[in-house]
Design brief:
By secondary structure, this protein is mainly alpha-helical. It has two domains: about 200 residues, no CATH class; about 140 residues, no CATH class. Helices cover about 70% and strands about 5% of the residues. It contains 17 helices and eight strands. Strands 1-2 form a two-stranded antiparallel ribbon. Helix 1 packs across helix 3, helix 7 crosses helix 9 and helix 8 packs parallel to helix 10. It is globular, with a radius of gyration of 23 Å. The C terminus is likely disordered.
Length: about 450
């Protein structure tokens, strides 16, 4: 009976996987819908329930989605390598090291713990790889970037408003039961949601610059206000880093726009502070900005994890420890914690070692240098910068990798001058030898 039951489950899983592969291949926008749903519920449901349990192993929706991503990536592997060249091999090398760490973990550690750890790496890796392998036509870009940025941004704004009505503006040190037995921050958005909202704001403001649609400008400004109110200090820092990088990489018009925007924001902030509007909220924002206790604890935690890695020997330093080893360490006197270390680069180092971390840094350096050469793709550099800086305080959420994969893919195409449809068309038109033709906005 057990054999029959497992056979039926395996058949159902195979059919569901085939369906996902077919749907994503024909309608990639379904992947964007999956991203939007997971982002919107991240406060209430950070860990969605399993679809089914097979032999003590839980199968989740993201497992099936990631398997579909993997199948599509394999089908497009040749085009991926052709497009990204040396950078593609760096990225593939990271994936190979993650797989090797998984195999080692399955041989040495508990199966369930090993698989759970692997999920936190493979979800963002496969989501980003899938996004980079897509052919970003004008229509696909409008659907999965511009429209998603607008609608997801407003969805997150509504979610933040609901949380403010439920628990107030909250603070960085208070928590509440999210309804699932998990203690959740009382801040209006969790960090991943705030990061996505910032990316939505950047996308809206960039494409407003191109087509001057007032709705894009208004949406982008409102999204930024909600990001500030969310009190996610890491995302505040991300926003400042994006401004600096965009100003350095930009030219003339871009720099002028950033300066004007900065002056307007500074003036509006001064008016709010001097007029003593919403003094309680302002106090909370200042307190959140000045509170360094959490970051200090993380520094101690990171130091202890690095020392543990060194104590485990040269092999752990070079190639990392096997998946499933956990992240237990002291985070201050008498405080033993086991959650992930809130630093994507350290988290990656612990499982793929200095070699894997080096490959990631080389990949980011190769991508960044290429994007710096494209004045028409400052938005790509801004998105890349946002996710990279965010990774200093948190792991990369899988759902941000859609925008990140698009940014890298479209930026590469723009610099390389390849006509692969990676530029998003905004509907502007120009006359060319008597014919009305479409023109891509910068």
């Amino acid at each position: 009976m057990n054999i029959l039951w497992y056979s039926l489950i395996a058949l159902a899983a195979f059919v569901m996987l085939g369906l996902f592969v077919s749907v994503l291949s024909r309608w990639p926008v379904v992947g964007a819908v999956a991203v939007a749903v997971n982002v919107l519920i991240a406060w209430e449901v950070p860990y969605p329930a399993a679809l089914v349990n097979v032999g003590g192993t839980s199968i989740y929706f993201l497992d099936i989605l990631s398997a579909a991503f993997f199948a599509l990536v394999l089908a497009r592997a040749s085009a991926f390598v052709s497009k990204f060249g040396f950078a593609a091999w760096l990225w593939i090398g990271i994936g190979a090291l993650l797989a090797a760490s998984l195999i080692r973990g399955l041989a040495e550690n508990d199966f369930g713990t090993t698989l759970n750890e692997f999920r936190s790496y493979v979800y963002p890796y496969l989501a980003m790889t899938w996004a980079m392998t897509l052919t970003w036509s004008a229509q696909l870009g409008r659907d999965m970037v511009i429209r998603l940025g607008m609608w997801l941004g407003w969805g997150l704004t509504i979610v933040a408003g609901y949380h403010v009505a439920r628990t107030g503006f909250g603070s960085t040190s208070t928590f509440v039961d999210a309804g699932t037995g998990l203690e959740q921050t009382t801040r209006p958005l969790v960090s991943g949601q705030a990061l996505m909202l910032l990316l939505c704001a950047l996308i809206c403001l960039w494409f407003w610059r191109a087509d001057k649609r007032r709705s894009m400008l208004v949406s982008g400004v409102i999204f930024l206000v909600v990001v500030v109110v969310s009190q996610q200090r890491t995302v505040w820092g991300v926003g400042l880093a994006v401004i600096v990088v965009a100003f350095i990489a930009g030219r003339g018009r871009t720099r002028g726009t950033i300066l004007i925007f900065g002056v307007v924001v500074a003036w509006a902030g001064a008016v709010v502070v001097l007029s003593n509007m919403a003094p309680d909220l302002l106090k909370q924002l200042f307190d959140a900005a000045l509170d360094s206790g959490t970051y200090d604890a993380r520094i101690r935690s990171w130091t202890n994890l690095i020392q543990q890695s060194i104590d485990n020997g040269l092999g752990a330093v070079i190639f990392g420890s096997p998946m499933g080893g956990g992240f237990g360490r002291f985070e201050g006197p008498g405080r033993w914690v086991t959650f992930a270390p809130h630093n994507w680069y350290l988290t990656l180092y612990l499982r793929v070692g200095a070699v894997g971390l080096g490959l990631l840094l080389l990949f980011l350096a190769a991508v960044s240098s290429r994007l710096f050469r494209s004045q028409s793709r400052i938005i790509s550099l801004a998105v890349l910068c946002a996710v990279v800086v965010y990774g200093w305080s948190y792991s990369w959420p899988w759902f941000v990798c859609l925008f990140l994969g698009w940014a890298i893919s479209s930026g590469y195409a723009a610099v390389g001058g390849r006509a692969d449809g990676s530029e998003i068309n905004h509907g502007h038109r120009t006359q060319d030898r008597g014919r009305l033709v479409e023109r891509n906005a910068p």
